[in-house]
Amino acid sequence: MDFSLTTEERQIRDTVRSFVEKEVMPLEPEVLRNEREGRPALDADVLRDLRAKARKSGFWGINTPEEYGGAALGPIMSAIIAMELGRTFVPFSFGGSADNILYAGTDEQKRRYLIPTIEGERRSCFAITEPGAGSDARNIRTRAVRDGAEWIVNGEKTFITGGNEADFVMVFAVAEPYGVTCFLVDRDMGWRSEPIPTMGQWGPASLVFEDVRVPEENVLGEPGRGFELAMEWIGQGRYMIPARAIGSAERMLQMAVDYATIRKSMGRAIAEYQAIQWMIADSQVEIEAAKWLTLYAAWRVREGLDARHASSIAKLNGAVMANQVVDRVLQIHGGMGYTKELPIERWYRELRLLRIFEGTDEIQRRTIARNLIKGHARLGLIGE
Ligand SMILES: Cc1cc2nc3c(=O)[nH]c(=O)nc-3n(C[C@H](O)[C@H](O)[C@H](O)COP(=O)(O)OP(=O)(O)OC[C@H]3O[C@@H](n4cnc5c(N)ncnc54)[C@H](O)[C@@H]3O)c2cc1C
């Protein structure tokens, strides 16, 4: 069993870490200011410049195949890079990537949707959730009815990340008589979006489709195979969610350690009290556990093994870990932790989402338990 990184992998991690420290973290005060004054976290120009700088350093298309100009660094490096990016709350990711399911498109769909998304010229969003169907995604009601060479789509989607900014949507609708089908629908084909205010900075949207006409050639994959595509989209990102959270938790824990050594109470640094030490110790234990579960899930993806069970475990554990760590870090900071002078409260609000989206804690537990009960997963395995 080899836990080490190659020299090249270590170099990549160190270069990303120094990019994040030098180029991204200095933007933190600006992000807090912008968000608190109701503006987007980063100005579009600032984001564009940052992505261009990253691209110059080779950080572009981290997990995009080389034939599309990407770096194709693979799942493990993608997870490690996400951990590094998670060290800052600046909502930044390297450019040059596109939703995995767009690779399932026809050559023409790749030309119109996949490649412009990789190039950053177009923005996608993924829409399956509806007001009446979240965890119960098989129960979606959005309908597509064929009319000659077109489909007419009617329905409403909710909580769609990037739905206000996207210029096309991968939308899932029941297409009679086939069943759930994925359609690529440009905004100018007629769907509308409305922002949904949330407790975090993550601003999703509701999308409304009223007699939106979609040409036949905009069906992604085969009619009736949409649910599989949706699960493929969700499955791909599952281990990336805890990966980013690990970076955030480590950065915050370091803040707590630093603060505990300088903050005095009753004549001593609070770091000397066992109550504080236990919070610090428990946090590191949980972060380390999350790190290895996440890398194990990424390893399974890299090896072409079924990673669904491992990813559910990593996602559930990582989401819970991040929320426990941020809560302890806030507690160690006392009243200061609750103020807007420090970013802890912002992280607290943002990380809460991890227990909800892309499969709630309860749905992950349901999946894990059912896999064991039905024999799809077995106990006692190592590295198989
Ligand atoms: C900020 C944000 C961004 C999002 N982005 C997207 C996006 O880009 N695209 C998209 O399609 N969706 C997106 N979602 C939707 C998200 O995936 C759903 O909110 C999530 O799947 C839960 O569905 P729900 O909100 O309808 O809750 P419900 O499914 O109604 O669940 C309510 C509660 O019941 C529990 N529950 C439900 N079923 C069971 C069960 N069988 N057993 C035990 N407990 C159960 C849940 O765990 C939860 O605690 C986003 C959500 C948020 C908040």
From TrEMBL:
GO cellular component, one term: cytoplasm
Residue intervals of the Acyl-CoA dehydrogenase/oxidase N-terminal domain: 6-121
Domain Acyl-CoA dehydrogenase/oxidase C-terminal: 224-372
Keyword Protease: no
Domain Acyl-CoA oxidase/dehydrogenase middle: 125-211
UniProt organism field: Nonomuraea deserti
Lineage: Bacteria, Bacillati, Actinomycetota, Actinomycetes, Streptosporangiales
Family, similarity comment: Belongs to the acyl-CoA dehydrogenase family.
UniProt name for this protein: Medium-chain specific acyl-CoA dehydrogenase, mitochondrial
Keyword Aminoacyl-tRNA synthetase part of the UniProt annotation: no
Domain of life: Bacteria
